[in-house]
Structures are given as structure tokens and as C-alpha cells.
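S.,

As promised, the guanosine-5'-monophosphate run. Input:
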Amino acid sequence: MSRGIPIVISAPSGCGKDTILEQLFKINDNLVYSVSATTRQPREGEKDGASYFFRTRSEFEKMIADNEVLEYTEYCGNYYGTPKKAVEEMLSAGKDVILKIEVEGAMNIKKIFSECVLIFVLPPSFTELERRLRKRGTETEETIASRIKQARAELEFADKFDYMIVNGDLDKAVRDVNTVILSEKMSSKRNAALLELVKNS
Ligand code: 5GP
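Predicted complex:
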């Protein structure tokens, strides 16, 4: 059994990465989700251990001190980090691990796992992104403006990713992400052992 691949998915808020992932897990059963730890408050419907591991600041700082996080960042005043042990175990078990993290975390993961795949999800346009943020109905004008500004800043990192996928049509975006993952799994650079196996068979 070969080791799984770490797959990072980043996208500005409102680009639909959660919905893409929800659909992706239905069609690719070798994928597992890396549940991050955070110090932010749970939102309605979020469960500890499934959406995030919700931790206090001092608990999170202890995780950092004990070297239990692969990478972490402070985003909008809260800590977010990827638990190290779980990711290592899932990769060793041959599972492809999805890390849904922001752009700087993505850059750090690339330094730790050079074999990882970085996927950036783009909105079809800023007009559409603004429309989607407005449609949620939960955001104030000020929040919408700040999310758009944040999205523009995050887009500056997009060309450092391996793939860009536009989420205009959800089904297509899901298929596109899965195509990237399946293609990466078949790439020659990841299949030296397979080649030897066939040669010696
Ligand atoms: P939210 O509070 O909306 O769930 O997440 C805020 C941002 O933090 C999102 O861009 C999300 O992808 C990112 N994020 C979530 N977990 C992690 C993590 O473990 N590490 C990093 N670097 N970013 C994370």
C-alpha cells in the first residue's frame, strides 16, 4: 500500500469550498478530512471533533509547545492549526488527506510535505462572490466589504498553488477537484514503486 497524499484546498470565504468538499467525499472514498483545532467559538451546527477541535487559547498554546501541530496561524484573532499525529496516521494508512486551510498555512504545508497538492478555488468573478456573500443574509455591509478585501489579498497567493479551479458550476468544480486528485495519484513521479513491481512481475 502506498502512502496517501496531503491535499490542501484554499479559497476565499464565499467560494463554496465546504460545499465542494461535501460532494467530493461522496465520490472519492479514499479521502479523509483533517479536522483542525481552533480557538474560535463554534458556529451553529458545528460539532467538536467533526468541524473543528474547539480549544481554549491556553490549550492551543500547549499543543504548540508540545509540538502537536504541523502548522498553525492566527486568523481574525483566533488560532487555527493542523493536528500532526492524525495527519501522519491517515497518510501512513494510505488515505489522501484533505486540509482545508488558509493560504499561509498552505505554503507551510508545502514546506513540510513537498509531495502535497495545493488546490486554490476561485470565484467566477468578484461580482458573483459579492452576490453570494450577500445571499447568505447573515453578513453586514461592513463584513461583506472586509471579506471582499480579504478575498483579494488571498488571490495574490493563488499562483503559488498547483491548480486553480473555478467554482462557477458546483458539479463541475467537484469533478475538477476529483480529476486533479486522481491524475496526481497516477503521475509517474508518485509511481516508481509500481513500475518496479510490474517490471519484476
Ligand atoms: P472559519 O473560521 O471560517 O472556519 O475558518 C477561517 C479560515 O481558517 C479559513 O480560511 C480556513 O480554511 C482556515 N483554517 C481552518 N483550519 C486551519 C488550519 O488548521 N490551519 C490554517 N492555517 N488555516 C486553517
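The chain has one domain: 6-199. Residues 36, 40, 71, 73, 75, 80-82, 100-102, 105 surround guanosine-5'-monophosphate (CB under 6 Å).

- D.
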